[in-house]
Structures
1.
Amino acid sequence: MSISARPTMPDKSGSLAKPADGRFGRYVRARFADRLFKYYFLFSILALCFVLGLVIFFIGKTALLTFAHISLADFFLSFDWTPENESFGAAGIIVNTLSLTALTLAMAVPVAVGMAVLIAEIAPKWLRNMMRPVLDLLVGIPSIVYGYLGLTVLIPVLRRMSGENLGDGLLAAALVLALMVLPTICRISDEAISMVPKKYREAAYALGSTRLQVTMRVVIPAAGRGIVAAVIMGMTRAIGETMAVVMVIGNTAQLATTLFTPASVLTSNIVMQISNVEFDTTWNYALHMMALLLLAISFLLILLIRYLGRKGSDQT
Amino acid sequence: MKWFKKMSLLAAASLVAVSTLVGSASAASGLSGKITINGSTALLPLTLQAAKEFQKLNPKVRIAASGKGSVTGPQAVKKGIADIGACDWDASMDVPGFKAFDGQVANKVAVIPFATIVNKNVKVNNLTTEQLKGIYSGKITNWKEVGGDNADIVVITRAFGSGTRVNYQAKALGGGDIVKKDKNYKEVGSSGDMKTAVATTPNAIGYIDLVYVNSDVKAVSFNGVAPTTDNVINGTYKIWAYGYYMTKGQPTGATKAFIEYVQSPKFQQGSLKKLKFIPISAMR
Amino acid sequence: MTPTAQSRKMQGSLAYNKLATAAFYGLGALVLLLIVWLLLTILGKGLPGLTLDFLTKVPEDIDPGGGIGPVLFNSFYILFLSLVVSIPIGVGAGIYMAEYAPENKLTEVLRICVESLSSVPSIVFGMLGLAIFAEYFQIGLTILGGAVSLAFLNLPMLARVTEEAVRAVPHDVKNASYALGMTRFQCIRTVVLPIALQGIITGICLVAGRAFGESAVILLTAGLSTSGEMWDFNLFAPGETLAVHLWYVQSEAIVEDAASIAQRSAAVLVVVVLLINLLFRIPLWINNRKLKR
């Protein structure tokens, strides 16, 4: 262990040059490593931002060309997306994206957080040790397998229950997505709940609280930050998911007025059409604009969830 | 943390090993080079098979193939990121929805027949051009209007610009439109999805490369002619198209050799036939 | 409040507590049932036909009986390379956010950047990778391009999970180490990381599992073909992975046993993800045992 470095005052007056004293040399090395790794960590986060910048630059430079051909109002306010006839109204698709995300989270968050509480607080150790890897397993199932099962198992069931001819739509997509983001939200919340210091719980129990009270009033608020992060990670995955959604949503560019209207969302629309358009067309630019928009939407949603999370934790 | 260190050490070591391997890979005589193929997914099975056989004969040639959509082929060639662009139509000429790619040469490699397919619960066995036009333009919405049961028609189609759709629209619908409807209408992203969707959705109609048709779905006749390879060759079944390899100018070097291999009687009469495509020579 | 009222309230709380516990267990049972059904559907169809032959043979396009050897190898190879690229940067970024970043608006913006990055659809990373490697560097569809593009996809998740895990390390432990005169980095290396390791490894598991099943990125950057032989370590060879192969057999393959290959590939994917989870946890268990002693 390197704890033996003594807490001497930092000496910056050229003493780097003489590594005579072994203990002192170690101190210099430690200072050097400290400095080095601080810059390395800083570099890492900047590299991450660089990747984001790269994405924005790469999509943005194509996306902005959209508005050389059509007006902002046409893109954001029109509900008519028929690119083959030069109508590029994305409003319906944007609304669908928001409703799909909301529907997914409404289904996934309560279940996922409930599961996290069960795993972290209630379940005996053997159950805990079994459930965690099982949940992780769900993350690894490729999205096309989810999509395929959605198409062949879920949709026939929905069709029978609803009496619709097709069964594709927001509900099918939301169910598939909810299952896909469940483990992400659950595992990160679980991690956050487990990290709540034991003394909080002990204090609450000592005051005579039941487990439910401890969980709801102490543990979850204390883990709030981590749970909010979990919800955000789940949401961003739901928003960016493509391969599974494409198979069950119906891919028809129209506003989803019912849960069973074949519809399309930003990702499914991009993935269905990007491979079939020419590079130098307004259509291609508009699809890039949709990708950029997707980033903007998730940015705003993240801000919103953070705001709600902060408000929630202020109250307790 | 030791584990962390070991991982990074291992990584560094393998990177060094890899780079030396790369260094020794070049040199030696014979046909060599790198061919990148992109484009139509419908031609992928053919391309992959041909690439495998070609690489066996010419071990120095490295072929990388991928597929995304027909128009990606000529586009990738234009941008210089692919040597061959597989495309379901002749991209050196204008087709509805897509302009010609100047300076590209279309090399015919196969004949691809297409079929109209329906879910197995549909009683209809034959559809005419006019009936299909009516169904896809949204004027005919019930199977009883074309001689079937009283049930809504569920239209399943490929995305605009898909090679299969371009050819089907041109040959089966006589250039007619496929109109989006608010209900009972769905777009799918690939041939496999098309087959699965039609097979699992009652009262569904769709279209697909004949190769994929099996007992899960029912292929219906077009204007009274059954969709079979023989009917395509004898000229009675009209829904078919050539598959093309687009190149920038006349192909050269390894690319030329590869295309020649695909067009050679050995491949056309052998593997290509086994893949249930039709040899180009059969249509002459 | 009278004593009786208080005890009635107590009893109410106790009843609620029992009810809630039952509800949580019920929820857990339902979700577990769903997962078990899902796994049984995938594994039940795929596992019976799984043979060593299938795992090692080269894929076929005409004759039935093709295997997944090279694509399975490529999957591991690309996953490994992408983790090599993304773990140091992702974990580093997470540590910076948790330990070094000052509490200000800029940090908040950085954090939202990281989260926004995780919502970028995988196909966009694919397009980015294509633009960088195929167009800018002109190296075509390669394992290298696929691995780096996949690493982009891994980064935000790794950073976020690391940050949470590092932040959860109790302050008193850190303070104790500072009191011993440690530099910040010494404290991170010897105190913070070992404690946060469990969380970080959970993150790596999630990321590795997702990366292993990712198809859109690889399809665009590493292509759909293999070099046709096993054990090709060449970074510049085309690198179809198992997930891409699954997509291919499910959507375009003509070979008659395509459906069976798809089922078996899906089963292999799930089993491998399970193995990855176990593999990454082993060092953790050993560590835990050491700590207990």
Note: The first helix of chain A runs from residue 22 to 63.
2.
Amino acid sequence: MKYSYYPGCAQHGTAVDYRMSVGAVFTRLGIELEEIKNWNCCGVLHVDDRTTRVALSARTLATSKGLDVATPCNLCYSNLMRARTALEDVTLKNRINEALKTKYNGNTKPKHLLEVIVKDFGLAKLGEQVKKPLKIKAVPYYGCLLTRPGNEFDSPENPMSLDNLILCLGAEPVRYYYKTKCCGGPILITDEELALGLARDILMMAKESGADCMVVTCPMCHLQLDAKQKAVEAKFNIKIDMPIIYFTQLIGLAMEIPPKELGLDKHLVPTDKLLASIEGGKNAGE
Amino acid sequence: MRKETILPESKDTAFRDLIIKSPGGEKIPTCMQCGICAGSCPVSHEMDYTPRQLVRMIQLGLRKEVLNSNTVWICTTCFSCSVRCPRGIHPTELMETLKPIAMSEGIRNKNAKFDNVFSDVIKKNGRASEFLLISKYSLSEPGMIKQAPFGFSLFSKGKLPLSVDKMEDTGELDAIFKLGEKTEEKAETKTNPGKKETGEKENAEPETEK
Amino acid sequence: MPENEPAQKKIGVYLCRCGGNIGDVIDLQAVADSLKRENVIVNIQDYLCSSAGQEKIKNDIEKGKTDRALIGSCSPKLHLETFRSMAKNAGLNPSLLEITNIREQASWVHDKESKESVNSKARGLIKGAVARISSIEALVPLEKKLVDRTLVVGGGIAGITTALELADGHEVMLIEKQPYLGGHMIGLSKTFPTLDCSQCILTPKMVAVHNHPGITMLTQTEVADVKGSAGDYSITLKHSPRYVDIKKCISCGACARKCPSGAIFLPFAQAVPQAYMIDMSKCKNCGACVKVCPRDAIDLDAKETTSSVSVGAVAIATGFEPINPSFIEEYNYPAPNLLTAVQFEEMLSAKSKTGMRLQKADGTFPDRVAFVLCAGSRDFTGRGKKYCSKVCCIYSQKQAQLVKKMKEDAEAWIFYIDMRSAGRRFEEFYHHTQEKGVNYVRGKVAEIIPQKDSTLMVQYEDTNLGMKGREIFDMVVLCPALVPSAGTKELADKLGVPLGDDGFVEEKHVKLDPVNTLNQSVFAAGCVLGPKDIHDSVTEGISAAHKVSQFLGKGMILIPPEKPMILECNGCGDCVKACPYNALALEGGKAVLSPLACTGCGVCVPACPIKGIEIRNFTRNQLKTQLKAILGEGPGVIVFIDPYAYAAADIAGVNRRQYSSLIRFVSVPSIHILDADVINAAFEHGASGVMLIEGTTDEKLTSRSDELYKKLKKDTRKHKKPLRYSHIETAQYEKLTDLLNVFAAQAGAKAEKRSRKEQADEKESAAE
Ligand SMILES: Cc1cc2nc3c(=O)[nH]c(=O)nc-3n(C[C@H](O)[C@H](O)[C@H](O)COP(=O)(O)OP(=O)(O)OC[C@H]3O[C@@H](n4cnc5c(N)ncnc54)[C@H](O)[C@@H]3O)c2cc1C
Ligand code: SF4
Ligand code: SF4
Ligand code: SF4
Ligand code: SF4
């Protein structure tokens, strides 16, 4: 199995932990991710001109050497998917192709890493790799952009792929009604107060569910829910203390990859209690 | 914002038609004002007009109200509205259509500023580095200094590299960003002719967000 | 004009402007001019269907100016019968009057095309029709005796009404899928707008059905198979076992008292028929009930059985069912205390399992109840149903009133988009509900989130205020879209009745023939024709009974005379084997037809190896003449279309669905009458492509279509032009026009390529 890999800007910045765990897990699973050379930012939600933004993603898809484009980020994924739909318009496609060195031809498909694992690799095969079933309760949090708008790979309201993944790793996905609610990430910088309020709702719901951790699929969600969790606690005067784990880290733990190699020490919300309960108390604090 | 009487001259049909013709806009005339968009929106309570009201104003062509409302800037692009609208309207796409038009008409607020900084960084480097972005944005938003401790906590975990991430070859970016300039020009020439004198005067001094 | 020559046919062509509907688009004068050399008289009128218009044709016939009439107007489905009965009165054999459709199939559907292309199409269609009408023979419809018995399918209020209204004059059989009569109405609490108790007004009717000597009532019964044809059906019924003989059981309940597993029970106290039944999934087969039953009514070994009944007419009254709202994922149905309105009603009805008490999952009364309207209705995204379900606005107000009545300080909230309370007594009902203190919120509920304590959080926008709101309720009632009962499609297919694109039975005419279907011996009433209240269901039940009685009253049914004629026969029997309806037999070494069994499907035509069989008025030569004339006015795509698909084209026309003006429909009784001779002729006369569009749902025919298509494709290959087969049901008019456009474009592109190649070839040979 081989994909063109589009890491997205965060992998080179705040999401170093995500990058480490992707590397550790995918190598062991034998899924080859070949990073696209000279890749560009997808424009996130801040390059306001639509044509430019579609063009940025068109370039990514065009330079993938005919392989499907795997990406770890919900935002990148959503942008790539939307661009693919927009590029069905032939006039737009031709206009954009004028600006591109390698022309977009519509032959490659974007895939989120979660989709790669759950659909292409398959949970049955993944199950065989589980060395240590994780006897914990986990909140499956997909974020708003993984399945929207209408990204066909899972439902935009009540997706199940991450639930199923958690189950496959021996953990219990809790019933969580905020699966696809917005974490506030996109407005964090410009409207922090509002953004923290959204994060609070999501974190409080997770807390109430009695879970040991929350599983995410996007570096922006992670930044908002992990790095900003303290700020949420301070602002609303509450205690949350909820470890936020990338799904790749969760897979890694079930495969008994050392937590350090998965970047679990790089979180702002400490993960040692969680690791301890996974280890049955042995490795607490490592 | 003070509300005004809707008069025949407040309706800019050229503006309305432009929006309806833009991607995802064709179904706007079928909005039945059910409000599921606004009810689903995580941030509609902060908007001066809810997404539903924005759609309604487009139906009427209330250009000034639409372009001056804070709605498009508060939207987090979560698509909750779009996936639930029973008429297949995409308020999210609408927000994205309106942003560049508002900016080309001189709307400047912190969101617009951030988007500008962001676009500039991407245009130059091809990639976004958090540190570079924040420092540039802080120049125009001094309040950002409060974020310093947060930045430090990231830095201490190795999560905020101070180096600038850059494409090895940024050759194509100019052409890509030029595509956008063309679209913006088009938008302007299309709405302006239909504009009434009064509209133009008011827009010379656009109301910025508080 | 050689007027004294008796063999000369005097064809009158009458073109209708239809106000401007046709006249504004098609240059009718030019059409008339193009017929100058055809030796016909032409007349153009504003409205041919008006009495003045009809009078003109009648006069021409009576004065001997016309002995064959061709009308160019709206679809024959609308006025053919009217015109033909006028012709008959004027002394002309009705089969010598035909209509060519230049409205639904031309002036309404080619907005995007050049005027000239629409005009040339119209000229072609009319010329083709002139050629056809001069070639046909006068036929007399066959008469068949009607069976004076009606099958009413569905024992809800609509079916009950139809049965009772009919039964004094005609024999009726009423079948019901459930073990009891009453449909949804027996599961209602009070009924709007008067709030009388549902079972109080319904029970007498159910008992009347049970006791009526003219009605045979069968529960747990469905239609398994339909044989025969209009007016004379033989229907196979399937009966699921009840394990208790209804006629013997006296409802003493001795059995239930002995049963160790609660498997034998009376559905509910007022159920008609009054008899116990067994739920086999619970039964332990211990036989305790059998031993104790004083009437020997129980048979644990009962099996599904079938029976057969012959009927002349069928009334479909299979009603509706609520859509399962779990597809609206943001509402998180099912969850404790989150119910559908139907479940809410049942709790307070004869079928109640809570002793007619409104209660939450924990048995207590809900103090705060929300009603969520339009759950799955008015949705144009394909997720829900496009239409408004009509009754929910009113029944939810009824339910809210009941909540307030049961507990004055309870809260009832109604979340609506538009409060639809039109009709007599309904605005007063709305006003009264407001007076009772029910809280109305204008806004479609955005999401419902179940809480830990089994309450429900409802999030919405109050659109009157432009403010988002969140509210906690003890109970939330979803008002789901109402859809046709499961199995409606299968039943309709068996009876040859088309459905609309919403899945409800299509009326013969939306406004003017609301309880007739497109099959003359099948009628419909109640919610199977679309969501409605009891009042309207009853009105339709009465109407349907009247229509059935009118139909049966004639005693005879006219059947179309377009049947096969056996011109030559070598006794090979191929046609006998081919006929799907056993209408042919070999007698004395020759094939003989029984016309009443024959449906005119035409399968025998291509089956005969010596081309000895032709369908009257659709012979190979007649079709070829028509094709030649149509294509003489410029190239086009020939589309052979059967009557069911023709109805889809009509709906496309009414909805102004645009398609290529290259399309030329040629109406045939069934596509199975076609063989390669006819298709090749179309190609030879210049058709750039040929399509066969079939709409019938009769499996006896559709199961042969693939083979027919393959054979035709092979036998017409030499022309290298596209041929395509497609199955389009009446409801699929959108698919139809999409298909026509794609095919026309394909055929056009191919034709262009061909002509370019030919030109090149010519140049080449010229150069040589
Ligand atoms: C929640 C709710 C509340 C309502 N409240 C009111 C009210 O207060 N007042 C009012 O006027 N109206 C009310 N209505 C509307 C009312 O229920 C309908 O108008 C009425 O029930 C329609 O009757 P029907 O016979 O057409 O259909 P149904 O009641 O659906 O009856 C159809 C019958 O056909 C049977 N059937 C289905 N398929 C087959 C088959 N293939 N073979 C044999 N049998 C079959 C079914 O089992 C059923 O018994 C309400 C509707 C709902 C959903
Ligand atoms: S959800 Fe759609 S139809 Fe409803 S108010 Fe919003 S835009 Fe209009
Ligand atoms: S996309 Fe924007 S407007 Fe729509 S629900 Fe999300 S935040 Fe609100
Ligand atoms: S009747 Fe009322 S609640 Fe029902 S679908 Fe129509 S508008 Fe919605
Ligand atoms: S037309 Fe059809 S039904 Fe009639 S005899 Fe021929 S094959 Fe049989």
Note: Chain B has a mean pLDDT of 84.
